[in-house]
Fold this protein.
Amino acid sequence: MNIQWFPGHMAKTRRMLAENLKLIDVVIELLDARIPRSSQNPEIDKLTKNKPRVIALNKSDLADPRKTERWVEYFNQNGIDTVCINALTGEGIPALVVQLKKMMEPKLRKVAEKGRIQRPIRTMIVGIPNVGKSALINKIAGKAAAATGDRPGVTRNKQWVRINPEIQLLDTPGILWPKFDDPKTGLYLAFTGAIRDEILDITTLASNLLELLAKMYPTELKNRYKFDTLEGKAGHVLLEEAGRKRGCLVSGGEVDYYRISNIILDEFRGAKIGRITLETPDERSENDGQKNDTGRNKAEG
């Protein structure tokens, strides 16, 4: 599947980020814990101009905990403090707030030493569509401060959200990048719902997902769909078997591929197949050369 998607408001958002970055103290980079590499914008350093940054691995409750630990270690080793969160339940968010304050301590101390009144820490949340930015803002603020939805790209305009006397958040629309140099990136974003299902061949997408899970999480896949065996079976064959076992049939006993495809994608995204992570830090990606070289993120005085 050749997935290319760059809506016009994405280009507008890039310009808006550049315009407002001078107001920001710390950037919160929100990644999907199931696909940390694919959900990280390769232009993040260019977009944020190396502002102090903390990574929040969202949807960690849906991800493989063993692989999540490896990702946290990887980002920490590369100089970026990382916190695992669940933006819907609030798990991990207190630790994120503590980390923001910790990163700003040197700057706030200098302000106090000069006798100035401390203003709130200004932070910007950046991330691809449907990664959970609005849910995170609402959970921190304790109210419906930002538009939320289960469709990618719900937030379209910037808005400041006063969290408390110490922190202000700038919400921004999600950003995808102009093209995916690694085909896997587009697929993984589609699997997790960052790209609208309406623009994709959902049957092909579900077949690709089954084929991948048969290699990475065979036990979980067999248990969920009662497959007798996975060995040597292509994704479209597994899709047909799953449809028959689930009773997704139309007249004449044919499989309703659209229905079973939606079921499989929904169950993957809801962790009903299992807690699954599709990427590990040690895997090499075709677009790794374009990924940012992470450096120490320290608040400047």
